[in-house]
Fold these 4 entries.
Entry 1:
Amino acid sequence: VAKVRAAGVKVIMMTGDHPSTAAAIAKSVGIFALDAQPTSLTLTSTPTSRLSAGLVTGDDLEKMTPDLVEDILLRTDDIVFARMKPEQKLQVVETCQRLGAVVTATGDGINDAAAIRRADVGIAMGQTGAAYSVKCADIVLMDDNFASIVSGIEEGRLMFENLKKILLYTLSSNVPELAAFLLSMGAQVPLPLGILTVLCIDLGTDLLPAVSLAFEEAETDLMAAKPRNPATDRLLNERLIFLSFGQLGLIQAASGFFTYFVIMAENGFWPSRLLGLRQAWESKAINDLRDSYGQEWTYDDRKTLEYTCQAGFLFSVVVVQWVNVIQCRTRRLSMISRPMNNMVLNFSILFETVIAFLVIYVPGNQEGLQLAPLWPLWWLPGLAFSLVLLCYEELRKAIARKHEGSWVDKETRF
């Protein structure tokens, strides 16, 4: 009970027992303090200020207006309802929902079924619960232990945090993929990244690292944080989109384009020559296309160079994603403070590297995946930009830690 209270969860006890029995049980389980003297709340003795402990009977609840019940729930820290009928338990659940709360109701009897069914999350007891209550519930506790609910809240918060990290990682690699097609259409340059190469990134190199983030441990004490507001703090919010598309994704796009233009330039095509060249580049009838130095290129030679550039673009994105997945492990802490103890993530980095080498260097991929082998020198641009992303993220997180509440902290804390 103390753990969920620290997490911002309000515990309300509703029972059909006598008020004295209900108060004694509440003290024994920690809802009321042992030395607490709960105030009996009736139609004529409602709280006008903050109340630490309150007790309401079902008979008194029948006489109260909905507004009065809302006042009691808002002003009383610890509250117990005794001598409650099934419809009154349902009334309390609906009142909490009207106040904007996400309500979880649990119980083992048939009298709890209506409240369990109406709650946002209904939880029944698997061992001693009535069959109809189990049927109405969303979750069934197989050990009938309240501590399992607490563990479920903690695990749910961890899953929510990790899903955000997965989204940040996967969305950031969409930026270079999208930018490659936009540049090709807008500037009419040879295609920097082919459709098959995009599939290699999305379904090959990015898949396992994204899944590995689901195995991350909590960055901080999740049960010390207040519940999120479901209306504003969504899984995909504007801060996460800004960080993935507007920051990390742009660094990856810069890495891919830099590698693309370096390979083109080293083979004779300076960026100025590439502008507006796509129509002639794609023409099979032109076998004497001149580069920036006057050298003539056949269609087959141009395609081999194009596939080499696409392989370089792919490898640059993969290299930057190495650092990106490590940085996505934490929202505020430095990567140095987190040991590399996620073995699934460690394996996934090795796995995506092997996949990248296989799709680039295995013979026959020029025809199948439209990728050609790279000179090792062309690995370096991606490695340089991975250092850029590393320094950028470490600096961003350091500013957010040192200046809590600053623009950097508020606008990039996803």
Note: The chain has a mean pLDDT of 92.
Entry 2:
Amino acid sequence: MGKISEHVIRVVNSASLAGWYKTVMGMQVTEDASAKTWTAFYPGEGVKLVFQEVASKGTTYKSNRDSCYWKIGVTVSDVDLARENIMAAGTQVSVPNQFLDVGYLCHLADPNGFTIELLQHTFKQNFVKPTPDPSLALGQTAVIGQITTRSQDIEASLVLYRDTLGMKLLSIQDISDYGFCLYFLAFTAENPPDKDLASTKNREWLWQRPYTTLEIQCRPGQSCVPMDKEGEGVDHITMEVEDYANIMTKLKADQSNSSFPDPDGVQLKLKSASR
């Protein structure tokens, strides 16, 4: 089975940023001194964040609504508790709200400006407060549940991610009042509870998955700027795929580094899935 394995980000002061993810977000961190990288992750099946050190004289990262990259999402059972603990550690977090019939959520930025969404397993009206775990930074276990990108042409994106790389489309969430639609894909054998991928019944189930999904926000007609290749920013997303050789041939991608952009400029790197 394939998986989204690494989310590689170029940053200044990678050690300090990794320390923030450990202390504030409760992730485990490791250093690879030879590669000048730090890795932050939650135990389990979710993606690992890899911070690559870049020169301080380069451009600093600024979140951009027109970028093909948006955020990561951290899923938890109790968003209010997670927010309380993060703010107690000195980081500001927006006030949580039930966003339509999507989810109970809020947002923050890490010290280098990368956006993080906190997303609750259940809608606000269905919340049952769990017993906190004071040994954990967020008071509870967590998963990097989403990497969110943007697309102008969702059909082209689905041809790549679903039809070529083998991801499964799990949910379609039409947010037309705000001018976009959300598509969630993952490397999984699971099926959502309702066969209708637009059903709201699938959403709380989706927020409770133990693996990372790719969330694509489709905004027809709006600009979608490719990832920067220098300075701070997202470098690439690593995906492990089955039938690697045939996929690379089909994509006509450079097999010397296995890296290529998706239709909207999100840089991907493929590896063969371990068995």
Note: The helical segments are 14-23, 79-88, 154-164, 201-207, 244-251.
Entry 3:
Amino acid sequence: MAKTSQATAFDYTKGMFIHETVGKDGGKLTLQGIQLNIPKDALEDDKEIRLGLVWGQEHRPALSGTQAMLSPIVVCEPHRLRFKKPVTLTIPHCAVEIKSDWNVKLLTSDTMVIQGVQWRPLTIADYESRIINDHNIKIELKHFTLYTVLGESAEEKCAAKSVRLVAFAPPLSPGRMFKMRVYCLNNYKEEMSMIRETERDLGGMRLDAATPVLFHDNGENLCLQLTNISDGWKSESGITQEMEFETVWHALTPSCTYVLQPKEPTITRILCEILAHQKGNDAKTQKITVAEEVTDRQSIVPGITTPPGTFSVFPFDLRLALIKLLDPPHPIGGKDWHLVASKMGMDYATILWHESRTSAASPTEQLLREWEQQNRTMKDFHKLMVELERLDVASEMEKFMTLQGSNA
């Protein structure tokens, strides 16, 4: 057995947590499609219950070449907390025909998330019962720790899992290269459903709705092809790119980047398509459509000026203050922009994209823009900061709200 590492501070940029005080009356916590139901009389005293998901490489289980990652890595805390009655944890999965085509393995850990996770199979000593459904697995737990779901093709089956492709790019700027990044993610249901992906307005950051692809256990790569590029653009990164089989099967969030160069500085729009299929399944091609044009919205990242009137709720000085407070990782519970994004309903794909751009754009600024597009007020944001126990942020906002009075 591998030696357990010493406890270290958890990097909250690699996870997302919510917490709630639950007592004898029970309670329910929900995060990104994960649900934790604590029944009445399961606890004798009030406890702070934490539900989270983590995506750091150091938290992932070691996988064989044939094993697929089918669910998020879920954290239930306090670690090893036991209950008088079983509690129900519902974990979404992305397996297709899970009951007939897959051999499913549930894993748990005897160590905490900060101790160097040691995965092992979930045994009857850990749970009362489990129910495998088409889109989720429900487990009646006896105690808290970490959980995830793996799978392999059943005998004489070529199992498939549902993944999705999500494309992002910064706003189109005249005379500048247009860089599109395409991520491949497990396609969970519930909070990560494609309907929410389609409806969410990201202010030009997401290029199209998430595109579902069935990915089979055939050892073949996922192929992407850039096509139907509008006049005035040329690709500097080739036309065809591939995501290796194992990176998709193991849910390592593979990505590829297309860089397009304008032939003239006056070009203000771009149209193109990205076709995707797995080798061996060429007939099952999916399409991402990109249609972007120049807008006058800019970032307040140093060196770039935001045009007057772009923001209507958060004054310029307040935005800068919020960026300084919420952009850096928070040492307690990840109470920075990550948790704000989760509370706003953003899913893993969106948060991951924001995280990938932190060197070029402020994630807090983008959240504030989205907040305004949802027609929410400064008072609503202040209430959320109090809820998240970010009283330093709330205090900073109160200075501006006092100045603005009833118009805040």
Note: The first strand starts at residue 15 and ends at 22.
Entry 4:
Amino acid sequence: MNEDQRQHDYSETDSYPRPSHSDLTYILKYGIKSSSGGGRSSARETIGRVAAGAIAETYLSTVHNVEIVAFVSSVGNIRMSFLENTIGSTESSYMDFLSHVTRKQVDSDECRCPEAEVAKKMKQKIIDTKSAKDSIGGTVTCVIRNVPKGLGEPCFDKLEAKLAHAMLSIPASKAFEVGSGFRGTEMLGSVHNDPFIQGKNGLVSATNFSGGIQGGISNGENIYFRVAFKPPATIGLPQVTCSYTGVEGILAVRGRHDPCVVPRAVSIVEAMAAIVIMDQLLIQNSRQQCSAALANVKKKLKQ
């Protein structure tokens, strides 16, 4: 039983919906909201996702050698070096980094950023923000290595669409990009296209601006994407807002609230990535088994 709880910290929200939180929308939809915290819109609900993701990842790692590593790539305006450079200028070094970054490196710092100097700046940014009773957002980058080829479905269930659906379902997430993402829009097609070269096991990409997915289907290259998380809505600073009855007032929330959710989101991003890949792998396996069964049916019909 959790005895380290402080429901009274949320008493002010009985009168005021928190700005940019789910208090008002849940009342509009259901006629009721959680009395303490965000209820189903709180990151507390992701405990089940992380548990399921751990099971999925164990299978993927054991059977297919799939590796999933996520890390904090930015906090506020403090960014890892690859985000500071013009896309394409350091692409080979960034791809090499994504191929070798490990969870041990990520977990060596509490900010969960694998660049030590950048991690120090991120930590100070979070400390300063907390001292000011404010909050700050950031991004999590994730790479999935050794993904089986052929995962993803045409049209509405493309692999990047399923990943985007999963990542944007995480509380506080606000944006998703895969491969070159938004920065790829600044490139010419002649530069952005990934030429094919002969690899050990067939054709591979000389570059990987596509992020391991082409036509919505995995091509065997590293899949990498980035998820943006907003500043937490619950802050200690007094905010001029409006009560449920429409009266202007001041809301200053008490209690323990994260000034930045990004370091905590790393495990959730990894878990959701594992669930998506596992789901798509099961779909692909079922297709292959049905195809094999159909071939046997055709043989019997000819006999």
Note: The first strand starts at residue 67 and ends at 75.
